[in-house]
Structure to design on (1192 residues):
């Protein structure tokens, strides 16, 4: 059985105590955010996820989506849950109040997003894709486009999608063939086939607003000739009334390893009417707005499923009895001890837990800076925050989903043979989690983005936004004996990250293959240091709270133990990563392609 | 599409050149083993696996097994393939000629086993379980039991199973409830429920011989009171004629994550007639014969699926075009380069390849010693070989399946989003591979077996059988400059393994939790050193062959490159593993169970 209770106490601890969000009440969108209001939002969100979404998770997996003659039926219960969801106003949590959104900080919406993904990843993909469409139209649309599409997307009455991939072109979007012919009425006629379109067709909303990348004939070759178009399933006439069916049809849905409740569609565009979003040939810029948000969200999927796997495995480990504690029977009156007494089960549970809590803190720290990057009044602060977010977005996407996948597998492993049986729900978590490593840019692409784009950008400006606070933290605690078990390993690993950065900078200049061969290990090294930094901050905070908030001592003491586990049993990977990535590209590239 | 061609050239290289099996032609079962005969066996086996089994792999996954009223139908094509299989005499390849087997060395049967698992893991589980039953009856049965059951099991006319697990007892077999009441005619009446019984019921053979663990009332408590029984589905009357249906029925089959073509059965025993195998209360000893062979076989499953994943991913990477090589377009006339030009794709392919070839050599080295342990005329050599096999069995089971799972996931990753779609077959490999980490003793149990049983046994005698040849190899090549890039990393990692061994020996004495908390990391450390050792031997051999066998230079040169990759990009993990495992049990055990 999948077990999930939203970790509300942890969200609140990170938000108020670690990130001290209450210090920012003077910022737009943070003003009304009293701790009580935040608690109420979290509790309502938790209730919805635990009571409405979680019970549909296994059944939706078994049932899947059904395709018939261009229409897609979502699994039983999704329609009702979606109704409740939009009535609760959850779709527009962080959207612009001008168009009906609630204008809350994104860091809050991110927490609710994590809960939803934990409870039912497939369901979360429907509103999740709409959020991206809202951002793209909000940032790049004309006033008319905004008033036409945003209110219904934000209310959840309509859904949104992103259409990038074609059969022969995934990562390499320059190969795109979908065409957009300009028409006399300023619209474009879109023709082509898109694949892997999440929520491309479904029965949850009355209209679906597709954002489609296509090439206007005669434009520049490759990626520079790509433009972005709004292509609604039903054309919108007067106000928001629905008119004619547009020339876009779902041709089929994919049979996948997991997220069976999420419709992954082949979309056929045939003379569909499209409206240019942003300028001609400026499609990639607009698309990046959506992609960056989507990449952060996908990273959180890794964490979210790891949380459910952790909770499920912990519940099972406290209940299932096999063998005896090596240090002597813990419950001698029973036939056997619960398996949580065994160190190897503990090692897996602690690994998952240390990852989850550290990753959550990192995601929320970056989420806060995502808010700063748009709402902070100081331009320099906005830029600094944007740099930090840009740097850590690929790290969160790839490290969270790679380790998240390892973690859900540890969850399954705690169940032994029973984990392999569909009934326990653990294998579903593994199948569902696996997609997060391949979509929104496979993780190898994230690593290239980090090493090839984010590191060198603006002479390393982004990197400084991360290195500087880590460095400051280490210096601040240099003489603190109590913090030494945390700060010393962090400092050591940070040193390795600096060394790796230098190596890549030097070697990559003369031979880009050197940087590319190092990229994935480098990304993971940075992910580990980032979690190490968050754990050190968590521990610093927990040590203060131990005295201030004596009623919750156990919560803070657990943080000290878990932080220690992270430093001693997870962070050491930085040593082998440094060694591997500085071994050079020759061992990777020396074989002739024909020898494979 | 799954791509698989049996790596016959690699099998032959390891067998003849690395392990120098032709030096042992004086040993029983090796006598007739001319290189030509071995080649012919490999080629015939390869043909069967590639042409008969591989084409059924995806269809069997989609179709699964069907349960109806106590009967199980295997997927379409399995019956015909099984007919061909037994007609080819493959079931009895390494079995005793006295009972119709072919008496070939097990190391040869192991290679054929790897091929079968690569091509169709589900299919391989049917004859695979019979092999275990043959060994148990051969080693522990009475003369009458042997003549009654062995010929038909060895010919494949009948199948065999292992029945250990019950709903409340998996790892902890002492909790077993299945009862065996002695009857007046020297038989026993068996009653109880067994779960997770691979091949417990199916339509491939006319009879199924179940080996069932049960407790004779009044025996010692716990595991010491367990006995093993032969319980045939149909009682055997005159000679091998089938008589009455026995009181054993399949109650249902499990719905699993993968290996859908393999029937995983709930078996209900109700007053079934059983025949004691070995002595009363000596069931575990007899069962261990089967379990050790099964654990080695399961380890090879990890390698086998990794091989298929590697070949499939390599084929895709040479075909799929996205982007350009960073060092400049490799095929400028095409719209894009094949993705094998990208270092991160190479890194994954090389990781899989380096694991596969190293693991294959290790499995075959241990397989050879498994032969020595039974057929060698020198008692001391038999004992030494048995010790080596005992030590490395849990390492092969756990490390091969853990890394094998990582490797099939790299295979999927090379396909990007397409890997998540059922059509490409990559996600099936991931689902199929996942079971190998949980069955035949979950991998955490293997680690405990290594650290708690194998290390201390006979004052470390087993360990010496592994440490001694590694040490000798390192010393032999101490001054060899050409071998330094291989021997230096091996020596460093071997030093770490020795350090870890000492630490566990010292700490484990005073606190068994220390050893148990270190066990999984220690096992992996030993697995890496063992592969490092095999790679150093492979390279040593390949360097000699480069001059002797100039027509195949490319094969040997690829070994030098791949060996280097292993040393520089995989073996460094030994450094972080040592650091983690010596961090002590406190970080794992400190939290109260209620805090999880």
């Amino acid at each position: 059985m999948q077990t999930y209770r939203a970790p509300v106490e942890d969200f609140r601890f990170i938000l108020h105590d670690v990130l001290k969000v209450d210090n920012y009440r003077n910022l737009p969108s943070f003003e009304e955010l009293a701790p009580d209001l935040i608690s109420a939002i979290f509790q309502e969100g938790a209730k919805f996820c635990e009571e409405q979404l979680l019970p549909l998770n296994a059944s939706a997996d078994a049932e899947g989506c059904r395709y018939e003659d261009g229409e897609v039926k979502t699994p039983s219960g999704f329609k009702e849950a979606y109704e409740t969801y939009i009535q609760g106003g959850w779709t527009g949590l962080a959207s612009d109040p001008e168009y009906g959104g609630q204008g809350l900080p994104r860091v809050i919406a991110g927490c609710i997003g994590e809960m939803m993904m934990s409870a039912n990843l497939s369901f979360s993909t429907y509103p999740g894709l709409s959020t991206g469409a809202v951002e793209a139209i909000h940032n790049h649309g004309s006033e008319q486009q905004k008033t036409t599409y945003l209110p219904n997307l934000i209310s959840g009455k309509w859904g949104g999608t992103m259409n990038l991939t074609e059969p022969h072109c995934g990562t390499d979007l320059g190969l795109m063939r979908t065409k957009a012919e300009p028409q006399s009425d300023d619209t474009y006629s879109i023709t082509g086939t898109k694949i892997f379109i999440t929520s491309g067709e479904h029965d949850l909303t009355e209209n679906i607003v597709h954002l489609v990348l296509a090439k206007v004939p005669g434009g520049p070759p490759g990626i520079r000739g790509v433009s972005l178009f709004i292509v609604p399933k039903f054309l919108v006439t007067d106000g928001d009334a629905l008119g004619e069916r547009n020339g876009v049809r779902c041709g089929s849905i994919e049979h996948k390893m997991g997220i069976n409740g999420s419709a992954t569609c082949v979309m056929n565009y045939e003379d569909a009417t499209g409206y240019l979003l942003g300028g001609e040939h400026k499609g990639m810029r607009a698309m990046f707005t959506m992609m960056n948000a989507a990449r952060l969200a996908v990273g959180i999927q890794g964490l979210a499923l790891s949380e459910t796997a952790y909770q499920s495995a912990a519940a099972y480990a406290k209940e299932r009895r096999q063998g005896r504690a090596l240090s002597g029977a813990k419950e001698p009156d029973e036939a056997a001890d619960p398996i949580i007494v065994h160190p190897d089960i503990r090692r897996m549970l602690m690994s998952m837990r240390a990852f989850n809590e550290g990753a959550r803190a990192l995601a929320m720290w970056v989420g806060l800076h995502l808010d700063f990057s748009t709402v902070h009044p100081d331009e320099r602060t906005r830029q600094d925050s944007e740099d930090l977010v840009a740097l850590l977005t690929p790290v969160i996407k790839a490290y969270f989903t790679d380790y998240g996948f390892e973690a859900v597998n540890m969850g399954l492993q705690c169940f032994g043979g029973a984990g392999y049986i569909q009934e326990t729900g653990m294998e579903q978590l593994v199948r569902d989690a696996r997609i997060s490593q391949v979509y929104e840019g496979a993780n190898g692409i994230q690593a290239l983005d980090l090493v090839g784009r984010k590191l060198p950008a603006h002479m390393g400006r982004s990197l400084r936004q991360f290195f500087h606070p880590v460095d400051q933290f280490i210096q601040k605690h240099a003489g603190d004996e109590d913090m030494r078990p945390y700060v010393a390993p962090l400092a050591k690993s940070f040193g390795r990250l600096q060394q790796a950065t230098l190596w890549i900078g030097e070697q990559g200049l003369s031979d880009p293959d050197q940087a590319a061969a190092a990229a994935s290990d480098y990304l993971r090294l940075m992910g580990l240091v980032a979690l190490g930094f968050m754990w050190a901050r968590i521990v610093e905070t927990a040590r203060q709270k131990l005295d201030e908030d004596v009623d919750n001592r156990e919560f803070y003491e657990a943080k000290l133990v878990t932080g220690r586990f992270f430093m001693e049993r997870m962070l050491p990977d930085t040593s082998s990563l440094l060694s591997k990535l500085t071994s050079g590209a020759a061992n990777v590239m020396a074989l002739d392609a024909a020898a494979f």
Summary: The radius of gyration of chain A is 24 Å. The CA atoms of residues 143 and 151 of chain A lie 12 Å apart. Residues 460-590 of chain A form one domain.
